[in-house]
Amino acid sequence: MISATFVAGISIALFGLSLASAQQDQVALHGIKPLPNERYVMVTFLSGIEFWVPARKGMEHAAKQLGVQASYQGTEKYDAIDEARVLDQVIASQPTGILVTAQNPEALRPTIDKAVDAGISVVMFDSDSPKSKRPVFLAGDNYRIGQKAGELMARLLNNKKGAKLEVVTTIGQLNMTQRSSGFEEAVEKHGMTVVRTVEEGGGYDATYARTKEVLQAAPDLDGIFDCGSMAPGASKAVQEAGKIGTIKIIGMDLDNALMDLIEKGQVAATLVQGAWHMGYWGLWMSYAVAHGMVDAGIPDFKQAGASPLPAYVDTGVYEVTKENLKFFRNINKP
Q1: N or C terminus of the chain with fewer C-beta within 10 Å?
Q2: pLDDT computed for residue 40 by the predictor
Q3: pTM for the whole thing?
């Protein structure tokens, strides 16, 4: 596994916001011939959410360095079938490479395999389809992210024994399942219990409605961990119940709404993934596969039926609170 420290240490600033000068951004790297006809496409679900902004920026930065085209597509829906439809359309356009995140690992598997079989250089990021033919997956270690959230919750609640917690997740989405499992394991070690697990629902309103129901059924709730990116919805329900500060809320990732809530003290913290790294290194890896760079001079990989790419790259996670929020504010600027 390639660690986040390794990735971050290759002369790039966090999320790549200050990687190079504007002039460097506009030219290909020395020794790499620009190939303006080559196209690489990033495909996501919930394509309008702000989480994808740094991932797209990372991809675009790598594309400028390599002298290739990069574009972003996806479905606005939280729906694996619709994402598969968009991915099918992208495959039909015959791009050089695709960077894709799976809303559901098994539902997207046939379409991902179809892209690989078509000779398209596929790289997966953020949410995996591990049984597919994809050669590499870039993301934070989701189980460890959940554990980190659990340890953070324990600190926020001063290791309160018997604390009752809610987890907001999406059943069937692999990355969220791993985060919720890691969280539950960590808090149990501190004598805390997850008493409610609710579906995030793909939007603030759905998370708000379901958290409101939980607060009515469990008025003595102590904390909430949203495994996805809908913590503002949970915060609204907690605020209406008059329990801001009493119920500690931990979110995932960042958008403008969540940043404002952290600044106001209505959400205690969030865990931010290295999304920029996913897009940047994802495109580099897709490019390397497309050009046979990873096979050159190392035929033993092919003979062994193995991939010269690492199966998994840990792109890291960062704990963001009111104290260090200012440092992260620029990440979501288009």
Answers
A1: C
A2: 98
A3: 0.75
